[in-house]
Amino acid sequence: MTQLWDFSGGVHPSENKQQSTSRPIRQAGMPEHLVLPLQQHIGEPAEVMVQVGERVLKGQKIADVTTGMGVPVHASTSGVIEAIELRPVPHPSGMSDWCVVLKPDGEDQWCHLEPISDYHKLDRETVLTLIREAGIAGMGGAGFPTDIKLRPPRDRKVETLILNGAECEPYITADDMTMRKHATEVVNGLKVMAWILRPSRCVVGIEDNKPEAIAAMREAVQGTQIEIAVIPTKYPSGGEKQLVQILTGLEVPSGGIPADIGVMCQNVGTAMAVSRAIFEGKPLISRIVTVTGKAVREPGNFEILVGTPVSYLLESGGLQEDQLNRLVLGGPMMGYTLTTDAIPLVKTSNCIIAATADELPAPPPEQPCIRCSQCAEACPMELLPQQLFWYSKASEFEKAEHLNLFDCIECGACSYVCPSSIPLVQYYRYAKDEIRKQRAEQLKSDHARERFEARQARLEREQQEKELRRKERAKAAAEAQAQKQAEAEQSVAEGEATDERAAKAALVQQALERKKAKAAQAAEPAPAAVEQPDIETLEKQLMQAETKLSTMQGMLDEARAQQADNVEKLERAVAKNHDRVERAREALAEARGQMANNTSDASSE
Amino acid sequence: MWTSFLIAVVVLLALALVFGGLLGFASERFKVEGNPLVEQIDALLPQTQCGQCGFPGCRPYAEAIANGEAINKCPPGGETTIKALADLLDVEPQPLDAEHGVAQAKRVAVIREDECIGCTKCIQACPVDAILGSAKHMHTVIESECTGCDLCVEPCPVDCIDMVTIEPDIRSWTWSPPEPEIIVTDRQGARA
Fold it and tell me: What is the pTM of this model?
């Protein structure tokens, strides 16, 4: 017997499961159109790989996620792509999203499949890729890509692998019926996941209100080490964190994931999809959906093709439209009301409730909180719902966050027990979304500030660079100017210098001249002195002439002695010099005679 | 008599010196550069850099608020920003000053590209460098970076920039608060 723990809080709403478990799983058949939303998982929407008018085969990939987290979408049957357009999709907003509309050709022709008989021979990475390529995302409702979930962080070894077959929410029996009918496939899928993760313990948690499923699963796990844990029926024991606590006694830390404490939860439907992907090679194109509520004549579970419109499935269940008051997708605790039945069922849809007016009446108006604290007792996460409610209502989100608003799993137990019928969960969802929005805005504004500051810095830098360049240019220009000036100055200076020298020289000359003139003036009274230079020059000239004549005479004598040819020339030159000497003598004699006269005149005066 | 008086004076003087020294040391040791309040205010402003408040950008307005400017001059921030500022500064929140514009849905600038003449005027006007393009070539707005500040519309010589309100889609949708009931005592007979 597996040891079980309990989680605090929880509620016991009426189960309403027997309506849909009395009939075996039926095939829903082929609707006229299949609408395949491009985003049926958490992450990025897939990108279309086909064109309108193209014929596709059953199981053919028609859209894939190339960047970011996500899984591909496959054609649920063979047929022709009729449109790629915005269509209402299962979403609480009731808004539209991009969908591929497939018109089945009725042949239901499979594309080429590659089943793997012995996955042990492959490496784990290949098997994970196969799981991704099969388009498997968590089928419990969240739609988290399974292959990513099966890759826990390296430092977190998964010790316990839990298969979640609790299915605690009223009305829903899809997992119950899956386990009853496809127990072997579920166990095979679980084995594949266990082989990937290598946990030391592998346990299937099933609530004790599903004896048939428990029996079927017990039979299927015979001969394996997989445990079947029968847990008491209490809402929300199927919540991931609650189931982890029930089966291991460990609490998932606030803001963490089960992998943080070495645990991982997988859904029953996901295990079956993994089994089909590996052993049959088939992608996730069908699932089991519960159709229930008093407004359908034949409630039960249907194996539907992904993309089957809700309206078609309701017809199969025998909808009595006059009885229908409210159409709920999911369970009565966590599901949401649909505004139209023209939406397709996707990988994460598990239940359609066609409720009559007295079955799920319109929620009564909200009344003031009376602080009865029943919500706090019911809360499986041990939060303070009424405080969270006050702060959410007053838009004091920070305080709500401080009280661990984000640990709320939105199970609706608090709203269920509230005697004032306050839609508490909607307040929390609103508060969470507002906080997320504010965070996103904060991120965006921080980003904008960064960009703004970067731009300012850049502009400033450019300005500085410009300034610097301007300065450099100015400096260069100034230098050039200075150089030019310097050159000019230098040339001028040089000019001046020469002038100066010239001037000085001139001055000196002038001074000399003046001195000479003065000397001349001083010598004027004595005419002999005036005549003196003449006699001197004449004497000099005479002397020069005599020297030259004697040199010439010497040369002539030499030439005569040697009998040279130039004797005649030399004779002529000697004669000329003789004349010159004669004339110089005469001039000198004349000058002397004149001087003697002057002196006699002066002395006679 | 005088001794006790003197003792009192000396003790008080000594205390004054010790604490004065401590304060002086602390003011040097734990000196804060700039005004931290401005940083905090700036962090709350939406950083559209639109200048609708009358200041050239969010930071100058933050500085002005720190110096006593009114906190209700930021239309892009709207009620949320005023409330956050009021909380931070511990003042009464005021309604948005209509003089500086009204709060409106988030918008982005979109250039009608076939009309763009490539004048780069909008690029120079964009405070967050969200417009891409070069002279004589078509410009376009990087939507994810656009703050919707409006500043590029005015300089465009051919008026080819539109401010487009961002329509909520399925991915930006958020839960709204529950509708308040007018007559809370009318419980429609439920839970009798």
Answer: 0.76
